[in-house]
Amino acid sequence: PPVLPRAAVSGAAAPAVEPARAEADGGALAGVPAQAAPPAPVRESPEVAAAWSLRDDGARAGYLSALVKQRPDSGVYVEIARAAARMTSPSAQRDVLAAVVTCPEVGRAGVVAALESVASVRSSSDQRHVLAQVAGGGWMRDASVRRAFFRSLDTVSGSSDRRDLLRLVLERGHTDPESLASVISAAGRLGTSSDVRDVLAPAAATGRVTGGLRDLYLRTASAVPTESDRAYAITALLGGGQERPRSGAEARGRAGRLPLPSDTPDADGWITRMSLSDGKLVYDDERDGARWQLLVEGKDFLVQVNGSTSRVVVRPGGRVVLGETGPATRSLEIRADARGRETRTFHVDGRPRPYDAQAEAWTAAFLDRLHVHLTRPTRSSGGASRSPEPARSPAREVQGWDATLEIEGQHDDEPSHRATIRARDLHLRGTELVGILPGGSLLVEETIYPAFPDPDPLKPRRGSTTRRLEAQRAAGGEIQWHYRVDGVERPFGDEGRAWLARILRKYASTQ
User: Fold this and answer.
1) What pLDDT was estimated at residue 376?
2) Half-sphere CA count of 480, side-chain side, radius 13 A
């Protein structure tokens, strides 16, 4: 383990910096930046107080995580968790809190203190990481920890992160009445109808939503804004275990099946290539010797493919913008109300134009060009292109990739996989990851189900398997990799690298 600071070894607490002295020195002491000065003094053991003698949160996190592994007194775990709350770096806070909650020697008080400190973490994904460690372990059987967990979950800003945590609670078998009541209540506070549906349906599938829980479930499901999601959640409880339909035509033809917002009732054969709850796709494009950039951006929309045609479907309550920039600028915004009724607004060079036959022709041509990028590898990326010139050789030249994608897949009418990709300042050569620029990061998470059509060494016979990779590079540091399977950290070895390569081939090549 790292060497502990001298203050911790000698038993002498690190002295607090006097505010007047710091101000007199221009906000710094002995060359240490002002932000390295400790927060307002609190009562801490010498071991924990020594952390504030270090320059930054990264160093403090390394020291405190090492201190956890040295099995300190039980009260020190509580102090360490509270010290993490006083930091400002979300990744440093995450590392310390995760070390506390996964330590075999930590007691109930330390875990509760760590959960209480989650509210101070200003990153939804980092909050989710800490809470997932608790949800995936045995501490949820403790009533005080369980209640602290659900209080902390309400502080997570991302609705999809809260959704996934609630699903993890159910997947780990925490289906006692109190846990189910907390899951159902928390589901009702999620941000989108589809998130509520995706928690309520597996809760109903446990077969334990009875008595008062049944009443709570029905009240929560009845408040879901989108009618199709509301119907699906209610029917999941009444019918128990029904399949999700793929299309409205199938829904009408089979008793007991209800359409979801992503259904396309006017035709069969459409395959959802991507489902984005909030994101954008950007492509470099050439036409008639001119260079263009195509944009697809919005929330709650799907990009679908059928043979030689692609189209964009907006879910109820969602919106999408189709745009092109080049010798001229055109954009079409499509909005769908709660009942799925669409309104269209068309602009040319920033000025509103009627959505007439000419606008319809432009939309059809745009979708044809979009189809080329969706069905064949291109030199473009999901996110703003970093190359001022189009790449001449996509297999050899390095290009930037920024992406925010949420993908849901089905196979033979069954859910097959769900993936989240958040990339910032990545460098790709074709679909191979070359590196991450300073300050850049990568988050990839994929859950695969038994219906997943591709070979995979972790493909489950039942249930699901989730891989999560987080990579981050500080402004002047090396890349830090964290790879987990079902919440358990593993070395990022051959299996993980092969999985990442598959993800990049599948999605970076189509962006």
Assistant:
1) 57
2) 11
Residue 239 has pLDDT above 50, yes or no: yes
Q: Where are the alpha helices (DSSP H) in 39-158?
A: 46-49, 57-69, 74-85, 90-102, 108-117, 124-135, 143-153
Least confident of 39-43, 188-192, 400-404: 39-43
CA distances to 185, 192, 193 from 218, in Å: 11, 17, 15
| Nearest residue to 449 via CA among 202, 279, 96, 218 | 202
pLDDT digits (tens, 9 = 90+) for 284-314: 888 777 888 888 888 778 787 776 777 888 8
What pLDDT shows up at residue 384? 33
First to last CA, the chain: 43
CA dihedral 447, 449, 451, 453 (to 10 degrees): 40
267 — pLDDT class (breaks 50, 70, 90)? very low
Q: What is the pLDDT of residues 320-329, one digit of tens each?
A: 999 998 888 9
The three-point CA angle 206-207-213 to 5° equals 95
Q: Would strands 414-429 and 398-411 be described as parallel, antiparallel, or unpaired?
A: antiparallel
pLDDT at position 396: 40
Reference 433, options 485, 490, 473, 388; nearest CA is: 473
* Higher per-residue pLDDT: 338 or 440: 440
Residue 472 has what pLDDT?
86
In sequence order, the 6+-apart residues with CB closer than 8 A to the CB of 108 are 139, 142, 144, 145
Which residues are CB-contacts of 215 (< 8 A; sequence separation ≥ 6)? none
User: Among 311, 306, 317, which residue's Cα sits nearest to residue 296?
Assistant: 311
Task: Report the alpha-carbon distance of residue 127 to residue 352 in Å, rounded.
Answer: 43
Per DSSP, what are the bridge partners of residue 334?
Answer: 320, 344
For residue 471 the two structure tokens come to: 């990579």
Decide: residue 450, CB within 10 A, 0-12 exposed, 13-18 middle, 19+ buried.
Answer: middle
CA geometry: angle 200, 216, 277, nearest 5 deg: 30
Q: d(Cα 427, Cα 433) in Å, to the nearest integer?
A: 6
Mean pLDDT, residues 54-76: 85
Q: Which amino acid is at 502?
A: R
Task: Report how far residue 80's alpha carbon sits from residue 67's, in angstroms, rounded to the nearest whole number.
Answer: 9
CA-to-CA distance for 511 and 376, rounded, in angstroms?
9
Report the alpha-carbon distance of residue 408 to residue 415 in Å, rounded.
8
